[in-house]
């Protein structure tokens, strides 16, 4: 157990180095059997390269591992959220570690071994359909149907709030007041992040509104628009005037997103599965600080992801308590710990503390608490489907 804790501590450091889970380019989707076999083959190849200290060959496998997992992970998420989380717990820091200038061979070897074991467990479960979330049970529950209706209303409300806050951002940018524009930027991120799993289903709009600079030539690329073009202009260039066309475009895209959301009906199994996606975003991607690299608003966006997960949990906790009171209690306590930690790191409201300037020990503590919350939350869909 002590050895495993040391490995996970080292893994956390790798993720916090700014190389956590990244947005992968479009990859060809393949069936689970084909994709999992390819990934396990790559994991075996990596073992040989690590054992032989072949640095260049090992580094080349990082992108390959990412793409292979991305090729079939969407088939895993809704059926086996707990095992999905287990694989990512080792695979993401493994990929991150392979991107470092200097490879930490003992940690990478241990992560590779654990990733293989997790993939083997997932492969067995998937092949035998053992422990899969029973969608039919969830859809047939009257209580969960009512919860889904309430969640639909929550999502609609967040969509409306998104447009309202983007209007405030556009107004602040046009006023020329940098401080107000920066604060309005941060506030406008909140509803977007609370319902991110729903927003991501509208991939074309999401790709325009929330694209990272990594997908473009540079910060000046004309195709680079949306939130993060505005973020760069407001927090790096401190140029409010140049942000005007981008804030106007973001507002129009936000209105389109709100209309798309308004026409959507979310089923019980879909909204319950969203809890895992929100926590994955928070503890494996957002925590690196990469997404809000210029604004430093990492804690607020993580808080919004957690609030979105809490909204789902609050709607189903009555049913969850009936089926597994211990799990419900663990989620409740872990949720309180995460919220308390975030509130000590950064205030709630229009201002925030730059995540990049926080002590790494505090960053690691938040990462660990997020993971401690994610672990019981991803068990929720399976428990509710029993």
Describe the structure using short key phrases:
386 residues, mainly alpha, A middle domain of Talin 1, 2 domains
Explain what the structure shows.
The longest helix has 34 residues, at 142-175. The model is unreliable at 1-8 (pLDDT under 50). This protein has helices at 2-16, 32-51, 55-70, 73-76, 81-98, 105-128, 135-140, 142-175, 178-194, 196-199, 203-209, 226-237, 240-262, 268-285, 298-323, 325-345, 360-377, 380-384. The chain contains 18 helices and no strands. The chain folds into two domains: 2-128, Up-down Bundle (Four Helix Bundle (Hemerythrin (Met), subunit A)); 135-384, M75 peptidase, HXXE motif (A middle domain of Talin 1), CATH 1.20.1420. The protein is globular and about 60 Å long. Helices cover 75% and strands 0% of the residues. The chain has 386 residues and is an all-alpha fold.
């Amino acid at each position: 157990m002590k050895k495993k804790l040391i490995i996970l501590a080292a893994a956390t450091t790798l993720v916090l180095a700014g190389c956590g889970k990244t947005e992968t380019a479009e990859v060809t989707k393949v069936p689970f059997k084909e994709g999992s076999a390819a990934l396990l083959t790559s994991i075996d190849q990596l073992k040989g390269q690590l054992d032989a200290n072949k640095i260049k060959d090992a580094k080349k496998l990082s992108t390959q591992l990412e793409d292979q997992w991305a090729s079939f992970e969407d088939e895993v998420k809704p059926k086996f959220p707990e095992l999905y989380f287990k694989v990512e717990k080792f695979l993401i820091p493994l990929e991150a570690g392979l991107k470092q200038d200097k490879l930490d061979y003992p940690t990478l070897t241990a992560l590779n071994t654990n990733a293989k074991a997790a993939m083997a467990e997932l492969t067995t479960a998937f092949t035998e359909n053992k422990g899969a979330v029973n969608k039919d049970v969830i859809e047939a529950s009257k209580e969960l149907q009512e919860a889904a209706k309430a969640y639909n209303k929550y999502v609609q409300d967040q969509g409306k709030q998104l447009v309202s806050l983007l209007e405030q951002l556009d107004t602040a940018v046009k006023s020329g007041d940098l401080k107000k524009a920066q604060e309005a930027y941060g506030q406008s991120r909140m509803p977007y992040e609370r319902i991110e799993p729903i927003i991501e289903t509208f991939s074309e709009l999401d790709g325009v509104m929330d694209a990272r600079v990594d997908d473009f030539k540079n910060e000046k690329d004309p195709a680079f628009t949306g939130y993060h073009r505005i973020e760069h202009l407001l927090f790096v260039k401190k140029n409010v005037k140049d942000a005007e066309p981008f804030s106007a475009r973001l507002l129009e895209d936000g209105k389109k997103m709100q209309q798309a959301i308004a026409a959507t009906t979310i089923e019980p199994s879909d909204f319950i599965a969203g809890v895992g996606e929100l926590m994955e975003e928070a503890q494996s991607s957002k925590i690196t600080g990469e997404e809000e690299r210029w604004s430093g608003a990492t804690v607020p966006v993580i808080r919004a992801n957690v609030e979105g997960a809490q909204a789902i949990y609050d709607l189903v906790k009555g049913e969850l308590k009936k089926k597994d009171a211990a799990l419900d209690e663990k989620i409740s306590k872990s949720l309180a710990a995460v919220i308390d930690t975030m509130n000590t790191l950064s205030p709630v409201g229009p201002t925030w503390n730059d995540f990049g300037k926080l002590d790494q020990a505090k960053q690691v503590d938040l990462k660990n608490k997020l993971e401690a919350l994610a672990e019981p939350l991803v068990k929720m869909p399976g428990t509710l489907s029993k």
